[in-house]
Amino acid sequence: MKLGLKKDFFKAGHFWIGVFILLVAVIGFQGAQDSFDFIISTVNAIFGTINLIVGIFVRE
Fold first, then answer.
1. DSSP-derived secondary structure for 7-59
2. Which domain range does residue 45 map to?
3. Which of 13, 16, 30, 45 has the maximum number of C-beta atoms within 10 A of its C-beta?
4. Which residues in the chain come in under a pLDDT of 70?
């Protein structure tokens, strides 16, 4: 029972980490001053999307 809850928590964790990273990336895009900020926001958006997809589609 506890192991199943732990797996569900980690799947939900991936989803919410993805949402948070995408939110940070959007804020970064709006406040980007130079190309370095833009690159960091792009990398954040990519990792956030990957975490979101993992959180939604991974079934263990």
1. HHHHHHHHHHHHHHHHHHHHHHHHT--SHHHHHHHHHHHHHHHHHHHHHHH--
2. 2-57
3. 45
4. 1-12, 59-60
Q: What's the domain count of the chain?
A: 1
Residues 18, 50: contact at Cβ < 8 Å? yes
Burial 35-49 (b: 16+ CB within 10 A, else e): eeeeeebeebbebbe
**C-alpha span between 4 and 60 (Å, rounded):** 10
Question: What is the pTM assigned to this prediction?
Answer: 0.63
Q: State the Cα–Cα distance between residues 21 and 25, nearest whole angstrom.
A: 6
Residue whose token pair is 């990273």:
21
Only one residue has tokens 């990336």, namely: 25
